[in-house]
TrEMBL record:
Gene3D superfamilies: 3.10.450.350, Glucose Permease (Domain IIA). This is M23 family metallopeptidase. Residues 314-411 form the M23ase beta-sheet core domain. It comes from Roseovarius spongiae. CDD domains: M23_peptidase. Keywords: Hydrolase, Metal-binding, Metalloprotease, Protease, Zinc.
Length: 457
């Protein structure tokens, strides 16, 4: 009953709504303007079909039911392999170096580097092919280049004057001697003496070893302990062999001038290797002197000392010059050979008589020239032997001794050798050499001063 009443209500409501709409449409209709009516009748022109060119037209291939299409992979361009093989990598190397100490042997140093006995023996044979290993001394150095597993690749022995002996390991063992590519450079310096020549040279950055050369050359003329009271000037000219910035060997004096205020002492050394130096006083030739060992180091002076072998205090009757084994030894003054042979702790000895009362003795020699004979006349600068370590010696050196009436005297202060030494035969040539040395010293000193000033600026 309720459902029928609800349906009847809905029908009546719909009828009323339609009546209202119809009445509203009738009462709201008005005439339409002509322009608006015309605009409502416009329609767009039909679009022209697209024109496809024949080149762009793709026609599908006629397909047949009984034909299966064949699919092929796209062909790839050929690949060319570049011949870039990887470089071979050398194994890492280790460098080991050490200076030979006093009393050490080559085998001991190589053992310290960790080399096995067969390798040490092979290295010794290689080095020995180019260098007498008996000449090894403290200051020489060994450099070993090896792989991480201990196999040696190269061994280098650095000896005197920048010379190196190399042993190179490969398919075959190769040994070569490498000489330094050196040039001779001249230097000059000036120093004022306050306490000692040694200290003055060291303060002026001049090789202090030159103090020994000056003491040796002027020891019989100038008393360095009493006559040098301070304020004296010393000017030096010397030569050095250089490989780049590295000095090779020991420097050599070319000219020295000592101005004491009262006198001017000058020394000109020759560059011919003879060791004959000319000493001047106030511009005049005083005497000619020949050093027993050119460029050697004065290692022990005359007087009482503790003996290096026996350990007790005893008189040292000469002066010692430390030098490499085989270094030439020259007579310091003209005379006649009075003895060649051995004398106990002196070892091999050559003695030269200078007149009736003075004898010079050269001891610890390793060799004497075959043509040197007793009674033979020698001149200052003549070769009479070579440095060695025969007799009682701790190392290669020359023991140089001067005996007057059989008694030893200080070789650096005795006047008799100066009297026995020959005067220059041609004083004109000697004075010419002095002028050349003075001029070169002045030029080098001016150059050194200019360079120092530039560096400061």
């Amino acid at each position: 009953m309720r459902i029928r009443n609800l349906a009847a209500g809905l029908v009546a409501a719909g009828a009323v709504s339609m009546t209202v709409v119809g009445v509203t449409g009738v009462f709201s209709k008005e005439p339409v303007p002509p322009a608006l009516a015309a605009a409502s009748l416009w329609t767009p022109d039909p679009l022209a079909p697209p024109q496809l060119s024949a080149s762009n037209l793709v026609r599908p291939a006629e397909m047949r039911a009984d034909v299966v299409p064949e699919f092929r992979p796209a062909e790839l361009p050929p690949v060319t392999l570049a011949d870039n093989s990887l470089p071979s990598i050398a194994p890492p190397l280790i460098t080991w170096s050490r200076t030979i100490a006093s009393g050490e042997t080559l085998d001991a140093v190589l053992a310290d580097a960790g080399l096995a006995a067969p390798d040490r023996a092979e290295i010794a044979l290689g080095l020995g092919a180019e260098y007498d290993l008996r000449r090894l001394r403290p200051g020489h150095s060994i450099t070993l280049v090896s792989t991480t597993d201990g196999n040696p690749r190269r061994v280098e022995l650095a000896v005197d004057d920048g010379v190196r002996i190399e042993v190179i390991f490969g398919e075959q063992l190769a040994t070569r001697v490498v000489e330094p590519n050196s040039e001779l450079v001249t230097f000059a310096g000036e120093a004022v003496i306050e306490s000692s020549i040694f200290a003055a040279l060291a303060e002026a950055d001049i090789p202090a070893r030159f103090a020994v050369d000056l003491a040796q050359m002027l020891g019989g003329t100038v008393d360095f302990r009493r006559e040098l009271v301070g304020g004296e000037t010393v000017r030096l000219l010397w030569r050095e062999a250089r490989d780049g910035t590295q000095r090779i060997g020991q420097p050599e004096l070319a000219f020295a001038a000592l101005d004491t205020g009262d006198f001017v002492y000058e020394i000109v050394w020759p560059n011919d290797g003879s060791g004959r130096a000319t000493i001047y006083i106030d511009g005049e030739v005083l005497r000619v002197f020949a050093q027993p060992v050119e460029g050697a180091r004065l290692s022990s002076v005359f007087g009482r000392r503790t003996h290096p072998v026996y350990g007790n205090v005893r008189m040292h009757t000469g002066v010692d010059f430390a030098a490499a084994r085989g270094t030439p030894i020259q007579a310091t003054a003209p005379g006649r050979v009075s003895f060649i042979g051995r004398r106990g702790g002196y070892g091999r000895v050559v003695e030269i008589a200078h007149g009736s009362d003075t004898v010079t003795r050269y001891a610890h020699l390793s060799a004497v020239p075959d043509d040197l004979a007793q009674g033979q006349r020698v001149m200052a600068g003549d070769l009479i032997g070579r440095v060695g370590a025969t007799g009682t010696a701790t190392g290669p050196n020359l023991h140089y001794e001067v005996l007057v009436d059989g008694r030893p005297t200080d070789p650096l202060s005795d006047e008799r050798l100066a009297e026995a030494a020959e005067r220059e035969a041609d004083d004109t040539a000697a004075l010419s050499r002095l002028d050349e040395a003075r001029t070169l010293l002045a030029e080098r000193l001016a150059s050194e001063i200019a360079q120092t000033t530039t560096e400061r600026l």
